[in-house]
Sequence to fold (497 residues):
Amino acid sequence: MSDIPSTLRYTEEHEYIRETDVDDEFIIGITDYAQGELGDVVFVELPQVGDSFSRMDVFGTIEAVKAVSDLYSPISGDVVDINASLETDPALVNGDPYESGWMIRMRAADPSELDSLMSAADYADHIDS
Amino acid sequence: MGDLKQTPLYDVHVELEAKMVPFAGFSMPVQYPTGIRREHEAVRETAGLFDVSHMGEFLVTGPDAGAFVSSATSNDPLSLRTGQAQYSVMCHAHGGIVDDLLVYRLGEDRFRLVVNAANLEKDWLHLNSQAGRFDVHLEDESDGVGLLALQGPLAQQILASLASEDLDAIGFYEFTQGHVAGAPCVISRTGYTGEDGFELYLPAGRTASVWQALMEAGTPVGMIPAGLGSRDSLRLEMGYALYGNDLDDDTSPLEAGLAWLVKLGKDEFIGRDALIEQKARGLKRRLRGFRLAERGFPRPGYEVSLDGSVCGTVRSGTLSPSTGAGIGTAYLPPDVKPGAQIGVSIRDRMIPAEVVTMPFYTHGSLRR
Fold:
């Protein structure tokens, strides 16, 4: 069974978004389920700090042994940090998707967009169906 | 999914929590929870155990068995002694490849052909359509035969404790009939990985117990089960062709770089005239290996460019776990030789690549 932390919110494309201790800044990555489906991640293309995205824009790509997938921004906003460790150790996404395998940190343009994302329970149903 | 066939090890794979995928009509393990990279590394460093029971086996017997196999395949099976095997191809009359296969000489008038599962029906029809003028009997043994591939530098050490035979006496592309863990077995020093190793042909009903015995013998020295995902990256690092990617009904063995399998000097075989003509006329294209100069994962179907114009597509491609480079194959004009520069379109970027001599990986434990 894949890990679906109850405190996060989720997209249908298998990204998660997590609150930080800074108002309106959020951590984004892909779910445990997604990394399991992708298999070994071999590299992750991330945007640059300062790039802006609208909700569900492609912010990067993830290349796994079996397939390449786009990464979708769960919210609109600006990239304020990226996980540079993934450049040298993309397998962090497989080993620890919710912590050391995070991808980008965004400042939300409209935090109310989070309300439209799935809860953990909804996401569990989504991957079950 | 209900129509997929299962190998004798299906329940074992499910128990191991393998990711099962449809492949050539079978439900096959593409990887175990260890992951493709780890399985690849294990084969290079210690050993991996593959279930390849989906492969097809045809038994050819009768007074004309040798003549028939020689007529159906491009290599020279009559040069084999009993106990030797050879890699070969079957061609259409027009020179395209029906399938690539292993030919085992079991006896004077007794051969076993090991074919790709995806081509089993096509091969069976092709062979039977050609058999009429020969005094031979063809038997499809596929459902009754299990096949394990034990591959890696520790393969012999692992197998030695379970095998009835002296493995040192089995050279590369040789085999012997014996027993493994009590089960009757054809022990063949062959493989598809570039490492030393064995392929074990077993009665279907005994395959699971031999797998279990090998797991018990191999686990303490680092052997792990390995799936089709690592089988593909291992074979591509060696430049071994895969039917459906590098070879198909419209490519000839000369174009595919398999001229060493084509004995144009022998009396007669299906496709010989077309291949002689193709050779005389000059090839229009040739399968080559390439290595990306930058980070990238070349996947089959991506466009390949030469001097700025598209000249083909990636046939096989992967991010080589052993070398870290993006590697692949493509059909290129025959004058594009190793050292030439090409480009591979990876989504919106053109990644420069160099045409290189295969294999891509040269440190395997394979004994030649």
